[in-house]
Amino acid sequence: MRTTSPFGSRRRSAFVLATAAALVAVGAGGCASSDSSSTAQPSPSASASAAAGVVTIRDPWVKAADKGMTAAFGTLVNDGDTDVTLTSATTSISAMELHEMAMKDGKMVMQQKQGGIVIKAKSTHALEPGGDHLMLMDITKPVQAGDELTFTLTFSDGKTQQFTAVAKPFTGAQETYAPGHGEPMPGMSATPGMTMTPAS
Fold first, then answer.
1. CA distances from 71 to 28, 38, 121, 139, 163 (A)
2. What Cα–Cα distance (Å) separates residue 128 from each residue in 50, 110, 125, 170?
3. Nearest in space to 177 (alpha carbons), one of 126, 111, 116
């Protein structure tokens, strides 16, 4: 019995080690498959939210104009669960600013909107004459009724969204500029304190 005991011990140790190794392998395999399923799980939703974009814009349009300034309008729609902040807009024919109407010296004037435009979660935000809008500061060519312009919106998280808007004539919302704001760049017809003129 004593002579076989060392061999028995060795066999038992080998068996225990083999069993432990098998359990570790199974455990690691279980973790690996559980890890891969948990990492695979978020991927579809991440790509779906990326594919869904930031916001959509309903009924976009641009005020037709021959020169100087004009503006783009529409309704921003945020179907997401968090608020989104629009920080800038661009188009190929003009520098742009985000504008709002504000009370100055007892009258409503147009000025740059500080801090961007917030579109609340599960909500909409109107860009409209007499309210918030996307201002084209100095168009390099006439924007005629029926023309299509492409705009790129940039949000506070760095995401961007493109949309196309059709130009149409509009004679309403004779906005006045806040004093000192919107000073013309070289070649611009606008002057501080100007009013938006009807499209010709």
1. 61, 47, 25, 10, 14
2. 28, 12, 10, 12
3. 111
Residue 165 phi, psi dihedral angles, 5° rounding = -125, 145
pTM of the model: 0.63
- Tell me the pLDDT of the chain (200 aa) as tens digits: 555 555 555 555 544 444 444 443 434 344 444 443 433 333 333 322 333 467 999 999 999 999 999 999 999 999 999 999 999 999 999 999 999 998 888 998 999 999 999 999 999 999 999 999 999 999 999 999 999 999 999 999 999 999 999 999 987 655 554 444 444 333 333 333 333 333 33
